[in-house]
Amino acid sequence: MSGLLRKFWIEPPVRAVMLLTALMLAVLAGGTAFLLYDMRQREIEYARSEISTLSRILAEQTARTLDGVAMALRGAQDRLSDSIGLQLELDSFPVQALLKARAEGLPQFSSMFVVNASGVVMNSTLLGTRPGFNEADRDYFATLVRRDEGLFVSQMYRRRFDGEWTFYLSARLVDAGGNFRGVVASAVVANYFESFYRRLDLRFGKQIQLINARGNLVASFPSDMDKVDQPVQGLPRLTAKAADPTGTIHVTETLAGENRFVAYHPVPRYPFLIGVAVDQDSALVSWPMTARPIVAGAGIVALLLLAASCGVVWSMRRRALMASALQDSEERLREMVESVMDAIVTIDEDLSVVLYNRAAEHMFGVPADEALGKPFDRLLAAESRGAYHAIVGRRRNSGETRNARRGRAELTARHADGREFPADTTFSSTEIQGRRFLTVVLRDLTERKRIETHLRETNRQLQELSTALQRVREDERAGIAREMHDELGQRLTAIKLELSWLGGRLPGERADLQDKVGVIKEQLNQTIASVRRITYELRPLILDDLGLRAAISWLTGDFSKRTGIELVLDLDDDEPERGSAEATTLFRVLQESLTNVTKYAQASTVWVAFHRDGDDWRLTVRDDGVGFVLDAASQAGFGLLGMRERIRLVQGTFAIHSTPGDGTTIDVTVPTGQ
């Protein structure tokens, strides 16, 4: 494709047509996708509505089925509890006739039977009198022995004589004195519900489960006898908040990577749950048939849009090509405008200079007539020519367009007098009428480098001065503290002893002198305490004599005693060398941190932890105070700056974390110096 033709494809009118076409295609694609998605969601909602309705209908049908069993069972209970029934033996023929009369015409249960007070089956509509089974271990009998539960629904059992899965509805029988006489029960075979489910016209892969109060499967469709009386996975909690207004709970399960929708509805008046499920593929079985015509129609419309856009673009081509030459000329003129601030050099594909402004003449000391047509790398120092050729080679071989991003590098240029100087160099490529040009913009960095070097040296000197001042300050503090402790402290103690000696020799009748001596001694005690406090604040001798752990214990104990703030200590046995810079730095940081807690934190508890962490000493101070917002202003205080500077001088790290209302934590690490 020629340069003019490539230029034509990025003309604003062409871009506008292409963007409009792309926008229309995007809207068409988005609308089609939204329509298909909406149809898909409607299909899913319809399927969920169907299983919800089916679960509700099946729950009501199951309740009516069990109502028939319950009515027959209560009728038999009433007849066996009236004056005539109480006179009948449970294994008598009249009792069997009564049971058969009550069970007649009710296909939902397989038998009705009575059990005596010992748990032995005495009469059954299916097995006759005295079949010989003992049911004392079954819950429908054992529960009613202890108390009257009304109508009791049992768990699942395999029937002893035929192995059928069965659950029982039972009611308590009592004699005229109210004593337990036995149980009348009805056996409901799970297969009855499965045969009922098979008769339903279930489409779209629906599945049905009847679940008892223990969460175990009673019956299902399709039938799966191996899972009967096994826990059903994924059962929801039946709460009013989880259910919809009809009492149905909807659950979406994922099995083998596919979604499955389940609607659970409780059976009214009975401890059962009906679950109706449908997998997503079955719910969407009709969706592809509806989606195909829509996708085909959208594709036809997209093709028509593309054809119309191509026609419009083709009609614009001739006019764009005619205007291209003039536009290229103007663009080249704009690219060649000289800059009065920076040196601008343009090179062609042969790496020869084709543009060389006055600033470049001044920077390199080479006139334009000597530079034009010559390789540009002759203006660079030898060590920078390799980097220059690498940059130019990447731009020549990468196929970048003329709107490619700019590259930037720092190269060393060479003046005509042989002087070399650093230059900030920016490279940008341009295509004009199919030819590629590379524009190089250079800025002399000599002055900036000189200033940077001066600043680095000044900072180094300031850091050395700061280190020396800190060392001198600590030495002076240590000297003053030791002089006060050794000289002033001992002299005050001696005065106190002499005063005590003098007070002991005063006449007993001079009570006024005795009181005056006591006052003077109290003032001496306060003075000694003040001298000791000032001494330890200047430089605690315990830090040099006993080490950092002892100094931390003394400082935190004194802090807690003075402020009333609870202080929790966590100290390692290991510690820095006594009197070392590391020990002094950590002690001063802790001292400043506790001072800040006293002034600002309003804390009730402070935690101080000191450990060795690998090759570092780690000190953490945390409080439960008011905290503050960490910003530039809050971190510019002299206390925090002083701590940061101390840590920096020993090549450590300093971190502070604080949130208003959530306390403040200062975390410091210092190298062990090993």
Automatic annotation (TrEMBL):
A Pfam entry, by short name: dCache_1
Transmembrane segments: 16-37, 294-316
CDD domains: HATPase_UhpB-NarQ-NarX-like (cd16917), PAS (cd00130), PDC1_DGC_like (cd12914), PDC2_DGC_like (cd12915)
Gene3D superfamilies: 1.20.5.1930, Histidine kinase-like ATPase, C-terminal domain, PAS domain
Coiled-coil stretches noted in the UniProt entry, renumbered to this chain: 448-475
Keyword Glycoprotein assigned: no
SUPFAM superfamilies for this protein: ATPase domain of HSP90 chaperone/DNA topoisomerase II/histidine kinase, PYP-like sensor domain (PAS domain)
Keywords, ordered alphabetically: Cell membrane, Coiled coil, Kinase, Membrane, Transferase, Transmembrane, Transmembrane helix, Two-component regulatory system
Main location: membrane
Annotated Histidine kinase domain residues: 483-674
Residue stretches making up the PAS domain: 329-374
Membrane-related topology note: Multi-pass membrane protein
SMART domains: HATPase_c, PAS
Subcellular location(s) per record: Cell membrane
NCBIfam families: sensory_box
Name under which the protein is recorded: PAS domain S-box protein
Upper lineage: Bacteria, Pseudomonadati, Pseudomonadota, Betaproteobacteria, Rhodocyclales
